[in-house]
Amino acid sequence: MEEIAHILFLSRPDLNQDMSLRQLRQLCQKSGAQLTLLEVLEPVSQNLFMSEKVLASQLESKLIEHAETNLKLIAEDFIQAGVKTDTVVVKGKPVIEVLRQVNELSVDLLMLNAESESNLKQRIFGSTALHLIRKCPCPVWAIKSTCYYPMRNIMGAVDLNPDDDDRQRSNLNPDIARTTVMLADLLGTPAHLVQAWKLDNEAHLQTRGGLDDRTLERLHRDMQRHYESRMANFCTNVLSEQQTKIKTHVVHGTPAHVVAQQTDYHNIDLLVMGTLSRQGILGMLIGNTAEDILNSVDCSVLALKPPGFVCPVKSD
After folding, report:
1. Is-contact 216 206, C-beta < 8 A?
2. What is the pLDDT of residue 73?
3. Where residue 91 falls among pLDDT bands split at 50, 70, 90?
4. Which pLDDT score is estimated for 283?
5. What is the pLDDT of residues 203-260, one digit of tens each?
6. Where are the domains positioned within the chain?
7. Mean pLDDT of 267-287
8. How far is CA 173 from the centre of its chain?
9. In the chain, N or C: fewer CB atoms in 10 Å?
10. What is the CA radius of gyration of the chain?
11. Could you give phi then psi for residue 68, rounded to 5 degrees?
């Protein structure tokens, strides 16, 4: 994500949006981006009020009027802060209508509340946020209401696997690093990069491979140095003079565990990560790694897509 010229924000007045609106206002002011506020109203069932003889169309008109008034009140705050702001209220399914607006308005970034209306603790991200993280063609910033303001730290999660020839992943790593540094500069916060690593078949090296503890420790040390070297070279090649602005962390463990641990330890309020297309299924996360990370972290997430990503949902 090289620049942010137009942001689309999905408003959910049924949720606590205070933190989302604060971070949205700060980003718009720092980047100079234009803002479109969007609220999606699901159609009222014609059968819902048959017994009371209340026309669903009348109720929908009132709901639309209320939504428009609410968005205009929000917009006034942004306009007073010097942000060019438009409002849009539409009827339909939230995911479909958001994707439609993303395509029609050519936005650079979609921002929304991360939480759902559910109070289940295990559901860190709501279903709407997860669907859009998977399917939206532009970057998606899902904001946690519990994050700090101003933001304390931003972290990018890269995958510098030396045996991986996946071009999508290779192309995403520079975008993740550059986006992390760009946002850190804009928002005036420290930037971090994290890389998780494990030995192939590590769980079986001792139990089935017969390796002793000393040999396994030597392999760990060698692999740690190897990834630290890859990280240093990556930062030099991708970030050039900006590399001194970023703190790097190379940690042994599974990606989900390491990223969750590091975001907690370093007080990360925004995690920048990539999503990829599983072979043959456009718009889905590759394997379970990205899903595991999303279900493990307790911070806001900015999900980036690889070049050429095609949305799997037709919005027309």
Report:
1. yes
2. 97
3. very high
4. 42
5. 777 665 667 888 889 999 999 999 999 999 999 999 977 667 799 999 999 999 999 9
6. 1-146, 148-316
7. 66
8. 15
9. C
10. 22
11. -65, -40
Write out the CATH class of domain 148-316.
Answer: alpha beta
- The CATH number of the structural domain formed by 1-146 is 3.40.50.620
Amino acid identity, position 272: V
Query: What does the mean pLDDT of the chain come to?
Result: 86
**Would 1-146 and 148-316 be classified into the same CATH topology?**
yes
Could you give the CA distance from residue 284 to residue 282 in angstroms, rounded to a whole number?
6
Terminal alpha carbon distance of the chain: 26
179 φψ region: left (φ > 0), alpha (ψ -120 to 50), beta (else): alpha
